[in-house]
Amino acid sequence: xxxxRHTCKSCSNEFIGSYCNICGEKVLTTADxxxxxxxxxxxxxxxxxxxxxxxxxxQVLRKPGTVARDFAAxxxxxxxxxxxxxxxxxLIYFFFPLIQLFNASLTTQLLSPxxxxxxxxxxxxxxxxxxxxxxxxxLYNLKTATxxxxxxxxxxxxxxxxxxxxxxKKNKFFMDHVGYAVELASFNLFLNAILLTIIVRLFGLGAYxxxxxxxxxFISTNLYFVLRSSYTFYHERSWRLVxxxxxxxxxxxxxxxxxxxxLFFITIFMM
Length: 271
Description:
By secondary structure, this protein is mainly alpha-helical. Helix content is 68%, strand content 2%. Helix 3 (66-73) packs antiparallel against helix 9.
């Protein structure tokens, strides 16, 4: 690679070697798309956090899909990686009492299409623990709230799977789709968990926030993200952009239901 002339993805400078001599951008290789490489970038972000975090978060909100697109293309000097951004936001989500975007209480779980099967498992588990239904619900909700914060990445992976089908003609790596899904999760963690919690507590809106309102907010904000980001990341246009965005929202709902089922079984197992 050292004898090959490259054009920098960030500043368009021509150079020889692995790094641009003007801005420091690294030449992207297949190894840079591996999980190990992404994990290393997360560790670097936690150790050397700076203004890149704020700039990257602003990009996610203002121009959805840009961070994942630039990262996949090899433009990695100006922003931190989508995974690094997600890791920092998930730490905030884990340690502070925020709106439980990815959690599902026992009441919510019993609204699932599999509720009858769930009730059988709940009754069996309650008997084995020697508690009544009310006590079991309290124990379950405490346990699942903690597990949900640890398992957000499960939802990310589940939501990335349909992308491989919807956009299989775009010649993207699997980790590129994951990067996009991670940016989407980061968007939700900040906007629909952290920022929404601040607004609700600042203006005392907690009494008006129920499951229906949260669903409307979730769908509206995610439709904004998907429309903007699909245009930027996948280069979709016209009616295909709208159609695939609506399909993706439906897939996200399915991914959320599968995630909640996984969360339910793990919570029951861990009690």
